Structure formats: structure tokens, C-alpha cells
Amino acid sequence: MQRFEGKVALVTAAAQGIGAAVARRIVAEGGAVVATDLQQDKLDALVTELGADHALAVRVDVTDRAQIDAAVAAAVERFGRLDVLVNNAGGCIVTSKMENTPAEEWHRQLDLTLVGAAQCIQAALPQLLESRGNVVTISSVNGLAAFGNLEYSAAKAGQVAMTLNFAARFGSSGVRFNVVAPGTVRTPNWDNQPGTLERFATFYPLGRVGEPEDIAAAVAFLASADAAWITGVTLPVEGGILLGPNPLDLTPSGPGK
Question: Of 48, 136, 183, 234, which has the fewest Cβ atoms less than 10 A away?
Fold first, then answer.
């Protein structure tokens, strides 16, 4: 299946985890990828893996609009067009208790996760209007339900609201905007927390945490022509965690009793 033959995607935070899986999936389906991140060595390794004919590495801090503009320009210069933006950059960087979070920590979180995504859309939009392309933003179940990490969750919820508004504004121009909202995914962020993913897996009705490839599959669908009549949608890819507690936990002394 070559759904991205002749298409070019820009993927942020592509050096590892979900972003790298998305880049691999798009190239596997015939596309070219501009992979951006702050980790230049890992970006270079990814490009070596994917092949220089199909991938380009550009170091980008998504809080810096000039760097984003340069990445979009590099995509057009190298591959001649831009069809897909995958907004994957973000992270939970706030450590204060929610009732005591200072304004500067709010700004750091929002600038990275929400404003960064908005700036990427703004930079890519002229090219996407020309190609009638689309944007897929990686949000989180934290933006859809209360799982803690208030500032991160608020930024992720903001991505959903932003997507709805972009989708409504530019639908008549043929540009689509959608969201994938993952649950817990096995990424390098968990490497220093042994046993955590195994414990989290018990909370999921499907009995496991997600893999980066699970998210990449959903992104590839929404970014492809298979989803040509889908815009403004948030697709949860979360092993059923939003259904509620695992039924195995619903003992007489458990939740709801």
C-alpha cells in the first residue's frame, strides 16, 4: 500500500518514539519525510535508516518560529512540496503541584505543546493550501479526561480546540485538520521508570500500553486519502482507557461500590 507516493510530510519530534514511527510509516508507504527535532544525532541516524532519497533531517526548536519557517523552506527546496504536517512535538515539563504552578511554568508548557503546534501550522499553511494537504496533531487522552498533569493536559486540550477551529476555517480550501489522542505509549520517556508501563498496562481494557507503531498507523490513516472526508476529528488511540476502569477492578469493594 503506497498511500503517500509523491507526497511529502514534515514530522516534528521525529528523532525517536512516536515521531520516528510516523516517519518510518510514511516512507514505507512511498512518501518523503522532513524529520525535525532537537536531537541531531538521532535525526541523522533516522535519515540513514530511511535513506537520503526519502528523508531529510532538520534541527528545529518548535518554540522558535524562524527555525520552523526554515524547516518548511528546506522541505520545499529538497522535495518541491509539502503535503502533510504531523505536529508531534510536546512534552510534560511542569513539575509543580497544580495549585502552586507559577506563570512561567505555564508559559513553558503552553509554548512548547500548544503555541509550538500553532506556529508549525502557520508556517506550513501556505504550502498546505497549495497542495490541499492536511495536518495531524498528536494530542493525548489527557486532553479529553482528567488524568492529572494539569498544565500538560490543558495544552493538549488546547490542541483539540485549535484543530476544530482550523478545520472549520480552512475546510473550504481543501485543507484537513485532525487529532490523534494516544493513551500511554512505550517511548524512551519511560526508560528510567522500570515497572511503570507494566503497571499501567493493567488499567487498559486491551491489557497493554500502546506502541509507537499503533499511533503511526492512525496518523497514516488520517493523513492519507483514505480519510479524505474526515476533518476536525479527534481519534482516541488508547486501548480503551477512556471506557472507564478495567472491569477486573470492579469488585464489591472497588470503584463504584
Answer: 48
